[in-house]
Amino acid sequence: MLRFDNLTLGYDRHPALHHLHGHVAPGSLLAVVGPNGGGKSTLLKGILGQLKPLTGKVVCGVPRQAIGYLPQQSRIDRSFPISVQETVAMGLWRHCGLFGRLPRAQRLRVAAALERVGLERLAGANLDALSGGQLQRALFARLWLQESQLMLLDEPFSAIDNQTAEDLLDLLEEWQAQGKTVLAVLHDLEQVRHHFPEALLLARECIAWGPTQTVLSADNLNRVRTLHAGPDPEAAFCSRTPE
Ligand SMILES: Nc1ncnc2c1ncn2[C@@H]1O[C@H](COP(=O)(O)OP(=O)(O)OP(=O)(O)O)[C@@H](O)[C@H]1O
């Protein structure tokens, strides 16, 4: 589904993530973990094509515009006057366009998605009237309707209650069981150990990638702690020889 060939990503030619190699098989449920500034969101931007590689490339099994993407909640504009139902219906824009009345079949799909995430009673509420957990449920419902084969989620469970996190984790596992590929940036390592079979540990480079229990070993986590995370503003353009 995804392949990284000697991928280096950065800003103003300063690398934030160096020389990543590897592939994500279709149907993977992969947690991307690591310290603040380790390059996790940068990797998602590289996959989405929002950031051009400094070296190497990302090979993606689906067209970029067909990737399902859930940004960090802090990047969502809630002040826009739009209802929960309308927000969720945007997941169908590829089929119906962004404006205009939805046909009955699509309205039923929106209602089913709202019910699946437990928001049917809030369908008419404005987005800014939702709690953090309710907003995340609405965004998962929108993602669900997109029916993408590849989904990228950036810190989907930060600052939300445990019950919502558990419900939404069930949904991720359901998507994986349907053969979809899911990459999620996460900070809660216990959540990763319990729900994610594979993990990618990043600290400006790949520290480990594979089965979660192996990746999250004490040795690997200690190694990450001793590494400096974040780009060095004094660093020259990356000149490391590809492995
Ligand atoms: N638009 C940008 N311009 C310049 N530098 C950036 C930009 N976005 C991110 N960076 C830097 O790149 C590095 C990697 O950032 P990134 O957001 O990928 O980290 P992260 O692992 O997702 O961190 P966190 O867990 O804190 O969200 C950070 O040091 C950050 O300051």
TrEMBL record:
GO terms for molecular function: ATP binding. Keywords: ATP-binding, Nucleotide-binding, Transport. Pfam families: ABC_tran. It comes from Pseudaeromonas paramecii. This is ABC transporter ATP-binding protein. PROSITE patterns: ABC_TRANSPORTER_1 (PS00211), ABC_TRANSPORTER_2 (PS50893). Belongs to the ABC transporter superfamily. The keyword Disulfide bond does not apply. Residues 2-229 form the ABC transporter domain. The keyword Transport applies.
